[in-house]
Amino acid sequence: MDNFSDLHQKDEQQTVKLNPFTSVWLHPKKTARYMIDVKSIGYVILILSISNIGVLLSNVMEIGLPVWLIILLCIFLAPIAGLFGSAIFTCATWLFGKLFKGTATFSELFKALSLTAIPYIALIPFYLIWLYVSPESLLIADYIGPTPWIFWLTTLATIIISIWSFVITVAAVAEAHQISNWKAFFTVFIPSILLVVFITIIVVLFMIITLISIGML
């Protein structure tokens, strides 16, 4: 009887509809399970396409690109960058998760990790306000002038959202791999550190080769 009750409760939980765009903020594990059990890859692509607009804005706005080019990048590059970046990160956390006895398949982890980009949607209004209040400071790379208040507000929002996105990442990995939060933390942390080290080595080697080529070494 108890087993039947448990199965019935589990079925009810699986049929509860969630809106991942809102539920992920406070219930990341429940939302990750909902994504894995209910949502299709097409829905994941939709999430990544929309969410990575905010990620892209935080990376290209201060380069000094014209507005029309930024719009084109958001339309065409955001979905591609979101899929490519998420696929690479999923592969890393899938492999390292296996070291901690993780059970997720690549597809399950890919669905769960798509949630980590959702918080960056909240950055879009900040950049739109910034564009309205002080377009020069946002779009001109060598801007010289007073720093607008929206800069500090957007910077603070970016820091908070980045931290919360990391929390969601750990929760999503823990739920997908069915491992503890601590194991999920290291599953995320280790490949991230290795990636930073790899990029640092590439940059250093590039600088050394450049200096040698111009005769400074």
UniProtKB/TrEMBL annotation:
Q: Any idea which UniProt keywords this protein has?
A: Membrane, Transmembrane, Transmembrane helix
Q: Does the keyword Transmembrane helix apply?
A: yes
Q: Which organism is it from?
A: Lysinibacillus contaminans
| Protein name per Swiss-Prot or TrEMBL | Yip1 domain-containing protein
Q: Which domain of life is it from?
A: Bacteria
The membrane topology term of the UniProt record is: Multi-pass membrane protein
Pfam families tied to this protein = Yip1
Locations listed in the record: Membrane
